[in-house]
Each structure stands twice: as structure tokens, then as C-alpha cells.
Amino acid sequence: MLYVSLYYLPVYRGDPVVLPGAEIVRLCGHLVLGGITGFAVRMARRRMRRWGLALVGCLAVSTSLQFIWDYLALDGMQRGSMLAWQTCAAIAVMTSGMLVYGALVVVAAKWSRIIFAPDSKRGLLGWPFRHA
């Protein structure tokens, strides 16, 4: 999969020693979007309440973010560089995805604690963020 993705990079010539910055952003973006969708898939797998709504919502969020990102990246690539508003929009898209993903991680950590360690006082963030 990585080599297929690298095939489409115009700077790729031969075996990469270090991945270009664009490829790192692409991989991290797909991990975040996959995590957003994976959250709802796990809800569906466990038949949790409102899993259908979560599945539709998470798919809509991850698909929308991917569509906007692709539009910005492909338009910028076609023009040779991104305009200032496109750069700001790309940063907003990436930040939005990370915030949604982070919120879902917090929810999943809470559910995990309820299921596996209901008596634990520990939170997602430990010292120094929380006091005992």
C-alpha cells in the first residue's frame, strides 16, 4: 500500500530512505480518519446503544474530511502550490479530524474503564494532569 501511494508522488524515484513530509501527513491523516470510523465500527460490533447513528455520523465526518482534504491537495497540486486560504483550510481540516478523534478516544477510555476497571480512579491522563 505504501509503495502504491509513493508511486503517485512526483518526487519519488526508487526506494525511499526517508519518507517525504507529504507522505507522513497522508499516513497520519488516514490513521485519524480510520480511528474515527473504527470507533463506530466497534460500537456496531458490540451492539451498543445508538451504534447505527454513530456509524452514520462517524462515516460522514471521516468521508467529509477526506473529501475536503483531497479537494485542497489536488487543487493545490494542479496549480503548483496552495493558496493561502487553502493552506489555512488544510490546517483546519487536520485539526478538526484530530479533535474529533481525541474526543472519541476520551469516550472510549471512559467506556473501557467502566467495563474493565470500574473501581479504578485513574483517568486517561495521569499525573501531573490529575491529582490523586
Structural description of this entry:
With 132 residues, this protein is an all-alpha fold. It has one domain (22-115). The protein has four helices and no strands. It has helices at residues 2-7, 21-45, 51-79, 84-116. Helix 2 packs antiparallel against helix 3 (51-79) and helix 2 (21-45) packs parallel to helix 4. The longest helix is centred in the C-terminal third of the chain and has 33 residues, at 84-116. The protein is elongated and about 55 Å long.
Largest sheet properties: none
Helical residue percent band: over 70%
* The number of domains: 1
Q: H/E series, N to C?
A: HHHH
State the gist of this model:
The chain is 70% helix and 0% strand. With 132 residues, the protein is mainly α. 9% of the residues are buried.
